[in-house]
Write a structure and sequence with these properties.
This protein is of the alpha/beta class. Helix 2 links the parallel strand 1 and strand 2. 51% of the residues lie in helices and 18% in strands.
Length: 157
């Protein structure tokens, strides 16, 4: 049984990023959104103690390219967790579903294939207003998920 009284690490300890190496892949498409996602994410990583020199931030053209870049980072075997940042806004064609589904599946496949936590903050929204409303919170959330999961995976290994 899990619980604080059973030796489960506290949330505070799981959110300690001081020893972690984190890779961040940002899609440039909808850059006004993804730049804000990235700023919030990097600020939260710093607040969690991840040293700036332990963060690798790369950009790719769009959400479909994010999984390939994540895979390249995972193959380096130097990261404790990765973060996927992007923004897909529904348009008038089926392209939205294709990009959302394929990028999401690709991110999950890399995480499972490499046994590496990946915080997926590729926003999929109906319109730009929804994306703007989520950009800061989801950027922060991605940083917290990456740090917590990296520490959890370390505990479980």
């Amino acid at each position: 049984m899990f619980g604080a009284d059973k030796g489960t690490p506290s949330e505070e300890r799981r959110l300690d990023g001081r020893k972690l190496y984190i890779g961040v892949v940002q899609a440039r498409f909808n850059a006004h959104i993804t730049d804000a996602l990235t700023q919030a994410c990097l600020a939260e990583l710093a607040a969690l103690g991840v040293p700036e020199r332990h963060i690798t931030h790369i950009t790719v053209p769009g959400a479909l390219e994010v999984p390939q870049a994540l895979q390249a980072l995972a193959e380096q075997e130097k990261f404790d967790a990765l973060i996927a940042l992007g923004c897909i806004i529904r348009g008038e064609t089926y392209h939205f579903e294709l990009v959302a589904n394929e990028s999401g599946a690709g991110v999950s496949r890399v995480a499972l294939d490499y046994h590496l936590p990946i915080a997926n903050a590729i926003l999929t929204t109906e319109d730009e207003a929804q994306a703007i409303a989520r950009q800061t919170d989801k950027g922060r959330d991605a940083a917290r998920v990456a740090v917590e999961m990296a520490n959890l995976m370390d505990e479980l290994s």
